[in-house]
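Researcher: Please translate sequence to structure tokens.
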Amino acid sequence: MRMLTIGAFARASRLSPKALRLYDELDLLRPARVDPDTGYRYYAPAQLERARLVAWLRRLGMPLARIREVCALPPVAAAAAIRAHWAGVEAETALRRDLASFLVDHLSTPSRKDTPMLELRYFAHSDRGLVRPANQDTAYAGARLLAVADGFGPAGGPASGAAVEALRFLDADELPAGDVLNVLQEAVRGATEAVRGVADDNEHNGTTLTALLLTGSRLALVHVGDSRAYVLRDGGLFRITHDHTVVQSMIDEGRLTPEEATSHPQRTLLLKALGTDAPDLALRDAAAGDRYLLCSDGLPGVVPDALIRTVLSDAQAPDEAARTLIAEANARGGPDNVSCVVADVVEAVA
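Model: Translation complete:
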């Protein structure tokens, strides 16, 4: 049987040699033969149809893990799976279109001189859950500062507590919006030192940290780890943090679907924690009517985003929303500590 070199097969299938090597590693498109001496890959012409299907599905934006499943299906079932994937893409596109429309309107505002001052109505609550022997989370809410930290290791509880305590001074005084990120970055350095002071260097101890700091009509965000921050705005729920985990990196690379991630054996493995790498820092505009949620991973680990959105939309006050979300996590087995900070943005009373 005539064989094609990896270069010839790449040209015929319109896939790069780099992509073909990746698909080989993922057991998505194995070469027909590998030279035992040189390791060079050879492909059979009959493999071109599968290769082209993979290329088409990648152009649709389908993750590699899902493509592997689709390619294993008979044609009719594969067609149904592609139809379902595209329906999901269209739904996600509609959400992004709404967000883009909001951003266009927001950025087109000619002046911010008349922007009203804002304040927070807030509530924080932390729960051990139904399985863990102790609560290693720390949740805090104040007039300007919202924070959640999720500790790990033997000194995880003291670590999360020390991190949040080190930020609490930010709640005391109004900060200039132009300098708030620098101030927050310095505060995080202090939190890192505080964690090192309570965590044994010889043990695997540490904490995540997600915090929002209100100044005027803007919110400064600091985030490291897998706790999360969401905003409910105009009925839509948007996650404003990105998980620093092994499974999230695999999702980003297309090696794993979000559905597969929920049961992946490494789903709790962090890539970043406080002090191990630079945290994400961002400054975002707040608006009266926004409702923010900060939570440890014990909430999204068992409660889907759709239900989180429903609870945040239906609850009359932050305390009701936070308590209901924690109750939902415990109703699903409470496998982890769960902490929620819910805050409503309102116009300040003169």
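Researcher: Any highlights?
Model: The first helix runs from residue 6 to 13.
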